[in-house]
Design a protein that fits this description.
single chain; 401 residues; alpha/beta; Aspartate Aminotransferase, domain 2; 7-stranded mixed beta sheet; 13 helices; 39% helix; binds pyridoxal-5'-phosphate
Length: 401
């Protein structure tokens, strides 16, 4: 299909819930993508955070091809070799402080949070969930009830009862909100969609302590921060905390759809029929996840994210532009808060062969695959600098008129 035809056909038949960019991406390798005209891009979108091991990672491709030829479907009413290996692997790589000893496998981030919320109510017998302002946890009803952004929520009310939102990084408000009715606190360690905002040590450790003192659980949403993104296998490892349920997804299976809930040994055993999923833990995706996690560890990608992330953060901070308000990040989850709208900046970057993401209206977010070459990361930052210069010029021309 030609570019024009692809774009016209999708535009005609797609649901309409996405604002799309005018390129058809048809091929990827590592941190590079190509569109249907053969134009190459440096990818700092990273499949929205699901391509940590790089696009079409050869180890993952091989595992998928082999497993596809052997067995694709066997639901969890049976045992399976790939699933057994994955469950054991997830327990081994989980943050040590969490004492994870079981996992529930599903198909997306939202679904992982849905399950975690159910498990928290089931374990505690309590109803209420405390979430945070600017938090993002997905778009299904339970996950959406924990998500803050009013424009995602309001058209779909009534949502699930029992949720309240407190300011992120405010322990006093947390102390007022968490009580004997609280089943769990759900939070991200770095608010990704909410503007790339890392939580302070005092807040993350403080709210965890408060929750536990009051008999509530802590659900850590590591869907974006997991699998090496922030410079550790999981972002929880940067803190002295023991989360009870950790939801993961995005990069877990090298780009295939999968989610999981990592369950601490402190959570009481879940009974049959309390939850389930037809596709959850299917052998094909488990094989992809096994290869992905092995690759992350063998190639020490968390350490690479830490090193490259620190380097990139330093470079971004040195950009002298009156349009930059703040630069933040953790590992290779990077945010540049602008004083202007980010969408035109993203468009200009794409024209120059760099793909990046927004995080809210003013924040430019970079989520490159952790395998990105340093030269490509440098080239992407060079382009950000140049694009911001052109926007400065436009602004000063306007001022001079
Ligand atoms: C992407 C994301 C989700 C939702 O994941 P889906 O797979 O799109 O449902 C939830 N929480 C966080 C922190 C995310 O970044």
């Amino acid at each position: 299909m030609h570019t024009q035809q692809i774009i016209e056909t999708e535009s005609k038949y797609t649901s309409g819930v996405y604002s799309k960019r005018p390129a058809a991406i048809v091929r990827g390798q590592g941190a590079r993508l190509w569109d249907s005209d053969g134009k190459p891009y440096i990818d700092c979108v990273g499949g929205q955070g699901s391509a940590n091991v790089g696009h079409s990672n050869p180890a993952v491709v091989q595992a998928i091809a082999e497993q596809a030829a052997r067995l694709m479907v066997a639901t969890e009413v049976f045992y399976n070799d790939q699933r057994a290996m994955l469950e054991e692997k997830l327990v081994r790589v989980a943050p040590p402080q969490a004492n994870v000893n079981r996992v529930f496998l599903c198909n997306s981030g939202a679904e992982a949070n849905e399950g975690a919320i159910k498990f928290a109510r089931y374990h505690t017998g309590r109803k209420e969930i405390v979430a945070t302002m600017r938090g993002f946890h997905g778009r299904t009803f339970g996950a959406l009830s924990a998500t803050w952004e009013p424009k995602y929520r309001e058209p779909f009310e009534p949502l699930v009862p029992g949720f309240k939102h407190i300011p992120y990084d405010n322990l006093d408000k947390a102390a007022q909100a968490i009580d004997k009715n609280t089943a769990a606190v759900i939070l991200e360690i770095v608010q990704g969609e909410g503007g790339v905002r890392p939580g302070s040590k005092a807040f993350i450790e403080g709210i965890t302590k408060l929750a536990h003192e009051r008999g509530a659980l802590v659900i850590l949403d590591e869907i974006q921060t997991g699998f090496g993104r922030t410079g550790k296998m999981f972002a929880a490892e940067h803190y002295d905390i023991a989360p009870d349920l950790i939801s993961v997804a995005k990069s877990i299976a090298g780009g295939l759809p999968m989610g999981a809930i990592l369950i601490s040994e402190r959570i009481r055993k879940l009974e049959p029929q309390t939850h389930g999923s037809t596709f959850g833990g299917n052998p094909l995706v488990c094989a992809a996840a096994n290869a992905t996690i092995d690759y992350l560890r063998e190639h020490q990608l968390p350490a690479r994210a830490a090193e490259l992330g620190e380097y990139a953060l330093g470079r971004l901070k040195r950009i002298e532009s009156p349009l930059i308000r703040d630069v933040r990040g953790s590992g290779l989850l990077l945010g540049v808060e602008l004083k202007i709208k980010v969408t035109p900046v993203l468009q200009a970057l794409m024209e120059r062969g760099v793909l990046a993401l927004p995080a809210g209206p003013n924040v430019l977010r970079l989520l490159p695959p952790l395998v990105i070459e340093k030269e490509d990361l440098d080239a992407a930052i060079d382009e950000i600098e140049r694009v911001l210069q052109t926007f400065e010029n436009v602004q000063s021309d306007k001022a001079a008129e």
